[in-house]
Amino acid sequence: MNDDEIIQRVLEGDVNGFGLLVEKYQKKVVGMIYNMTRDYQTSEDLGQDVFMEAYRSLRSFDSARSHFSTWLYRIAQNKTLNAIKKKKPLFVPDVPETGSTRNAFHEVAADEFHAEFDRILHRLPVKQRLAFVWAEIEQLSYQEIAEMEGVSLGTIKSRISRARQQIQDALKDRKVIAHE
Amino acid sequence: MNKNDSYQSWLEKRRSTEISREFSKDVIDRISLYEQKQRETKPGWEMARWLEWVSLTPLMQTALIIAGIVVGAARWIAALQIILSF
């Protein structure tokens, strides 16, 4: 059963049918919010709000204009950006204990890198970060992200390219610092 | 582990966000509650619910028809009594 068929069922009164859509998209929606906020509780709460909003607005969804997924991700994106604006100081990326330097154990080294990537990602301007999270982590196509954002494909490519460049630069800086 | 491997493993980690098992159930529960509230706040909802109940109960339908006939007949009898009394 495709999304449009499920939506039709829901609009005819089958609330449980909406559960199929939740099951299908929850991972990407909650995953995106988590990767933007790094707050597990917030990501689940906001994720629920996203699906509630989608349910309430389902009659306004026009399958001729966009895919359901694009429409849903746009709701998720707007809610996330609003939450970030309101609660900016609360979203702190995980930071490893200071003083732990790279050692021979790969796991520790990997953890350090992961934490470093997290920090760098969260220093990016929010639009670049969002585009990067959608494209690299959630693996959405550039076209899909452009439709969601309501901007041109070129703008999205540019945001992701700048995000990558900043991550590379930050990693270079880190290497310099590590050798000092 | 080189930087590229680290980057790939970081991406994998970020892609594997855990979601509570109850997540979709919680969403459906919230929607059901929302639907219930919507129904309750609609004007005439109580009447609609009563009519729905009546229409779904054959025994109640029969009882209402009989009650209607009895009340109607009683009125006709009362009217005839008044006319005949003149």
Which structural class matches the secondary elements of chain B?
mainly alpha
| Order of SSEs of chain B | HHHH
**Total DSSP helices of chain A:** 8
Helix-strand sequence of chain A: HHHHHHHH
Count of separate structural domains of chain B:
1
What does this structure look like?
The complex is a heterodimer of chains A (180) and B (86). In chain A, helix 1 (3-11) crosses helix 2 (15-37), helix 2 (15-37) packs across helix 4 and helix 5 packs across helix 8 (153-179). Chain A has 180 residues and is mainly alpha-helical. Chain A folds into two domains: 1-92, Rna Polymerase Sigma Factor, Chain: A; 95-180, Arc Repressor Mutant, subunit A, CATH 1.10.10.10. Chain A has helices spanning 3-11, 15-37, 40-56, 68-87, 106-123, 126-137, 142-149, 153-179. Helix content of chain A is 74%, strand content 0%. Chain B is mainly α and 86 residues long. Chain B has one domain. In chain B, 84% of the residues lie in helices and 0% in strands. Chain B has helices at 3-15, 23-41, 45-56, 58-85. The relative contact order of chain B is 0.04. Classes of the chains: A mainly alpha (180), B mainly alpha (86). At the A-B interface, helix 2, helix 3 and helix 5 of A face helix 1 and helix 2 of B.
Secondary structure: elements and pairs:
The complex is a heterodimer of chains A (180) and B (86).
Chain A: H1 3-11, H2 15-37, H3 40-56, H4 68-87, H5 106-123, H6 126-137, H7 142-149, H8 153-179
Helix pairs in contact in A: 1-2, 2-3, 2-4, 3-4, 4-7, 5-8, 6-8, 7-8
Chain B: H1 3-15, H2 23-41, H3 45-56, H4 58-85
